[in-house]
Amino acid sequence: MEEAARISRELDLPRRKPESINSDITNLAALVNYAENEELIPKSPARGLILPITTRKKDRRNPFSVEQLVCRI
Known about the structure:
The protein is mostly helical. Helix content is 45%, strand content 0%. The longest helix has 20 residues, at 18-37.
């Protein structure tokens, strides 16, 4: 991960949020885990691979409350 970050800085690539990268990692991990379960590879290299989310909890978007989701007729 650190090497990928270094290369990204050297190439001046646009930055992505950890949440976006974790979503991509999750999708890739599903594929690699499938390959492991089907015994196509001995062990998934994606196990436990995730970036820490550094956004402060209070700055993250809150989900809708139950009251906001209730449909008023």
